[in-house]
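Record now logged for everyone:
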Amino acid sequence: MRGELRILGMAHGLLLGLVLASPMIGSSALPWGVEALFIIAAFQLRLADRRWDARAGLRGWASHIRMAPARMVPWAGTAVVAVIAGPEQAALAGSILTAVILGELLIYPIGANLLGRLPRPGLAGLILLLIIGCGLSEPGQASRFAVAFAIGMTGCVFWMRGPDGEMRSTMIATAIATAAFLAALFHPESARWVIPAGALAATLALAHLSVIRRQPQHWRIAGGARAFRSLLSRP
């Protein structure tokens, strides 16, 4: 997947850098940053593993688990950052590692098979249910991070089923992300629901922007109208 969805990849790297630098910036937002990181990382993981259907079953599970240790390195660094951030965030490290293990070894292998059978409206309904379920957990809990991982996975399948690079879809996703983050800013009590929704919407918007289609160039005859008239005047 190198070179694909470049804008989304850059945003993923920027978010990871901000999370790793959070002890110097401010550790209070660390749980929210980690949650958004789970969503975008699961989205990227499912996108990179689009060949799952071709190797489903135990073979696919074994292949996924065999490649999992390399993906654990950034999460281990994030857990270390949570420990460095102070005693109030120390429990976050255990939640991160628990959610990563659940996501990589259980949620992803099972979800990759089940999500492929759902139509796009069913995926949208599942995303809504997952966001509601995510809001029922307290920020920073392993269960919330695991659900965020599932949200990112489902959002990726939803995106792959739809029109990619369409301006209308891009604007809708951008509007939802903006509204969600504004709601979290002005109504903090709604943050537990709107932040995962906003993170997924922002991920979808960045994915659309990564493959946005250029304005098509209409076909024209070389030489303009004069050439066109000369063609018409020919017998």
